[in-house]
Inverse folding.
């Protein structure tokens, strides 16, 4: 297998997931995202969506999309489950991961692409600069929503550290570097960030 890696929160998400499970990722191929290598052949022959990361299997099949890659790795290495060991746990993790993506990660990422990241992305995808402020506001609202959900519990899905936590952490840590930090007044979310940032997998995935 080959793992196609780059800068950015999405590859970091997968690296952190693997580190948390104690999985050594296969041969890693660095892709120049800043130079647009991911938007042209031969990378687009593997992943026509032109996004990173991607996992190429030994038979030539390519799995893209961070959550799909993490699901695949968990299937291969079910020990120390980060999605779940029962149908109920897996359903809860998937529910919370989806909420993370829709309420925070998607608006945060597009808010960046349409504003600070506009010079990089304007020639690569449809950008809507006039939507940037609204998207950033939606991400802030999502952060506040998660702050409320975290009252009285350690992790997003309850007392288990899961893929949902990794998915949110990778993007909040990125957001802090591109003008979208977590409001200091969100005490529960900031305490959660501190807990997750202290995990060895957070440092290992940088």
């Amino acid at each position: 297998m080959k793992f196609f890696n780059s800068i950015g929160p999405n590859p970091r998400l997968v690296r952190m997931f693997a580190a948390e499970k104690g999985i050594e990722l296969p041969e890693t191929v660095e892709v120049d995202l800043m130079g647009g290598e991911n938007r042209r052949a031969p990378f687009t022959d593997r992943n026509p969506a032109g996004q990173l990361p991607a996992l190429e299997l030994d038979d030539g099949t390519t799995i893209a999309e961070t959550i799909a890659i993490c699901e695949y790795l968990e299937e291969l290495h079910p020990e120390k489950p980060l999605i779940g060991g029962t149908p109920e746990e897996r359903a809860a993790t998937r529910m919370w991961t989806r909420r993370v993506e829709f309420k925070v990660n998607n608006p945060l990422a597009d808010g960046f692409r349409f504003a600070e990241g506009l010079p990089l992305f304007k020639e690569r995808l449809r950008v809507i600069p006039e939507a940037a402020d609204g998207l950033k506001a939606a991400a802030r609202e999502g952060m506040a929503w998660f702050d409320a959900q975290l009252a009285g519990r350690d992790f997003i899905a309850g007392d288990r550290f899961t893929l949902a936590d990794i998915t949110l952490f990778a993007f909040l840590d990125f957001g802090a570097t591109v003008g979208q930090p977590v409001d200091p007044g969100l005490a529960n979310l900031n305490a959660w960030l501190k807990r997750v940032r202290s995990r060895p997998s957070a440092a290992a995935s940088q």
